[in-house]
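Encode chain A's predicted structure.
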Amino acid sequence: MSALLFVPVGIILFLNNPPSFFAIACAAAAGVMASAVPYVADLIALRHISTHVFGLLMSVNPVFAAVIGMLMLGQAFGATEWLGAVLIVCANVSVLLLGGPVNDDPAPERQAEGIPLTDYAGGSTGIPIRD
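Encoded structure for chain A:
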């Protein structure tokens, strides 16, 4: 909804002060680097580690973001923010200590159900679509 409301403002700004080719190229590069590159990196990682470990690593991202914000941006965190980070880390440690699924590869189940393993997300990424 906010994007729809911003479109007229963006058009007016674009017409009154057109950006240079370099600015458009930088914006396009930032868009690709901020979305497509992490998505491809996630797909590549999923080919080499189990989904269980991948999920644990992804759940630690907010903690990494908080630490980077503190170190690079000088942000200060209160007790509530640190409690949230500690809870995330404790949840991850407890999952690792209590164990998880031994085999989280859906291929045997998919073959048993007659689902072809040629249905891949994103074309030729080699990542089976999971239900």
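Confidence is low (pLDDT under 50) at residues 119-125.
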